Amino acid sequence: MRIDILTVVPDLLESPFNHSILQRAKDKGLAEVHIHNIRDYSTDKHKNVDDYQYGGGAGMVMAIQPIADCIEQLQSERAYDEIIYMTPDGKLFEQSEANSLSRLKNIILLCGHYKGVDERIRELFITKEISIGSYVLSGGELAAAVVADSIIRLLPGVLNDETSALTDSFQDNLLSPPIYTRPAEYKGMKVPEVLLSGNFKLIEEYREEESYKRTKERRPDLLKD
Ligand code: 6GU
Question: Percent of the chain scored above 90 by pLDDT?
Fold first, then answer.
C-alpha cells in the first residue's frame, strides 16, 4: 500500500514513520509513505501557500494552486482510491475505518493547516474527511500520522504473532484485558492466579470476562451496537 501525505510542515512527519513497526513495514516493502511539501508546488515567487480569507476574519486559508498542482501531479502518476482531508470537522476516525482503508492500494492524506483549505479543494478533490477526535490540533499532521499508523499495522505481514492485531482493543468492540509480566508478585501485588495456572480454557474465560468488565466500566458506548 502507498500513502502520500501532503503538508506544509513535512518535518513533523519524518520521525513517526522511521521507527519500530512502521519502519519494518517499509523495509519489508509492505507500505510506502511519501511526504510532500506543498510549498514545493507553489508558483508564487515567495513560495506562499496561504492567503487572507475573503469576507475578512482572523486566520489564513491554504490556497488552491499549490495543493491542486501537487494532487494533479500525483494523480497523473497513479490512480488514488481515496483523497482524504484531515480536518477537525471531518468524520470521527474509528477502527472500522482503519480496517476499510487498509484494504486500499493508494491513498492521499491532505493535512489542513492555518484555518484550513479553500472550500473548492474539498469540492474538487476530496473523497473523505477525517477527524481523530473532538479537540483541535494545530494542524492535520499528527492526525495523519495517527491514521497512517493505524492503517499500516493492519497490512498483512506487518505484525507478527506477538503483536497480532486480532487481539487489539476495539477490533471486536471490546477493550483489552489487563496484562502482566514477571515478577509474579511486586510489593505484595500478585498476578491473578488463573494466569499462572497453565489452563488455557480458564485463562481465555478470565480474559473475556475482564475485557467485558473493562469495556462496560470505561466505554459502555462500545457495547451498544
Ligand atoms: Cl484531522 N486536524 C486538526 N487540525 N485537528 C484535529 C483533527 C485533525 N482531528 C482532531 N482534531
Answer: 87
The answer, yes or no, to whether residue 167 has pLDDT greater than 80, is no
Question: What is the C-alpha to C-alpha distance for residues 213 and 174, in angstroms, rounded to an integer?
Answer: 9
d(CA 12, CA 6): 12
Q: Which three cell numbers stand for residue 104?
A: 486500499
Q: For a substitution probing ligand 1, which of 60, 89, 115, 131 has the most ligand atoms within 8 Å of its CB?
A: 131
87 Cβ below 6 A of ligand 1: yes
Question: Strand, helix or coil at 213?
Answer: helix
Verify whether ligand 1 is closer than 6 Å to residue 12 (CB atom).
Answer: no
Residue 142 CB–ligand 1 contact under 6 Å? no
Mean pLDDT in residue range 183-200: 98
Same domain, 206 and 102: no
The reply to whether 118 and 181 lie within a common domain is no
Residues 129 and 42 in one domain: yes
Cα–Cα distance, 108 to 99 (Å, whole number): 16
C-alpha–C-alpha distance, residues 225 and 221, integer Å: 8
Model pTM score = 0.93
Cα(165) to ligand 1 centroid in Å equals 25
**Average pLDDT score over residue span 41-50:** 96
Helices H / strands E in the chain, number of each: 9, 9
Range of the domain at 213: 169-224
